[in-house]
Amino acid sequence: MRALIIGGVGGMGQGVARDLVKQQQVESVILADLYPDPERLSPKLRESEKTTLIKMDVADHAAMVEAFRDVNVVINTAGPFYKTAVPVAKAAVEAKVNYIDICDDYEGTEILFNSEIDRLAQDAGITVLTGMGSDPGTNNVLVKWYADRLEEVDEVYLYWVVSIAELAGAAWDHSLHMTLGKVPQYLDGKLVYVEGGTDVVAEQFLDPLGTCHVRYVGHPQPLTIPKYIKGVKNVIIKGALIPLWVDELIKEQKETGFLSTEPVEVNGVQVTPYDLALKLWETIPEGRDNGPQSSGLKVIVKGKRRGAEVTYTADMVGRMAPGTGLPASIASLMMDAGDVTQTGVVAPEGCIDPDKFLSAFIARGARIHETEKVSSMFVTDKYGFLKC
Asked: What pLDDT is stored for residue 378 in this prediction?
């Protein structure tokens, strides 16, 4: 298998590459990046005979198509994905090569599903798998795994936490962008749009994260999960940046106009407040709490089985780069093995076999803390007999 990773020198791209170069069936891994500096690579990737560095700009459609024709799969890790998912997928479809991304911006997902990219990919017989990171990605697969064990699925809650100690580059753009304006949630059987960054709730995550305050964010799952999990009534996605002061400051910036995308004139110069805020967020002042070197996921799926109400909960904690990179790597290997047969645009819960994926994920050292709670739906009297 020959793989090309867009954004291959970045943290997420290297997370994918580190797993791929270990696999016997992988012949080569091309790390395509706007800044292909070998000094940015980890020593193992820099020294691997399987890796090659090339310069690539996602704005250069012709160059992408030409490079993509020489590989079996393109893996896009270059965010923010509301800017990159569509152009890279278009080039992959034209080159007739399977495509995977770790897109966590709902706008890119929406366009991929509702544009000609879906039809063209089907006509070409290729798969455009979008959202195959951690969130979305691993948690989508977990939702499918639990849904397959239920007769009805009523509610899905997806919560995530990222420490700013793990944030860099385009991840900051996504982190600010996901709370702006109206973002999708699936409530009472309907897709609705709510104000990003609102409806804060406290959720408990595994150590060292503890209690975190999550809020509505603009991720793709409310758009994709109802396509594949029929009958689900609620799909709610909330996230947090920690420590808490980060989200609180972002909220203040949003309310005071510092995250506005409308240019303003300052001393005769047009300045976009969002661009300035984004640049300033790239450097945290010395002495500020950056949080632990860990991120976390929580998946809650509620439904019914044999007359009982069932709640599944899965918790994970770990580093963001491997946690995001491993799922994309595993999915590409599943494609190469013929385990992904769907063509066109598809989300993880629509094409990834949960048992095969989770087996591979756990074999690589992932740890998932799971609970299952079963509550009878029947009511009994004081003697234990069913009431009619």
From this structure: 56
Answer whether residue 379 shows pLDDT above 60: no
Domain boundaries, the chain: 2-133+321-363, 138-318
- pLDDT exceeds cutoff 90 at 231: yes
Q: Does 357 score more than 50 pLDDT?
A: yes
Least Cα distance to 219 among 200, 233, 205, 240 occurs for: 240
pLDDT tens track for 302-335 = 999 999 999 999 999 999 988 999 999 999 999 9
Encode pLDDT of 50-94 as tens digits.
999 999 999 999 999 999 999 999 999 999 999 999 999 999 999
Q: How far is CA 355 from the centre of its chain?
A: 20
- 2-133+321-363 CATH, one of 1.20.1740.10, 3.40.30.10, 3.40.50.720, 3.30.310.50: 3.40.50.720
138-318 is a CATH 3.30.1660.10 domain: no
Q: Which of 3, 15, 5, 4 minimizes the C-alpha distance to 324?
A: 15
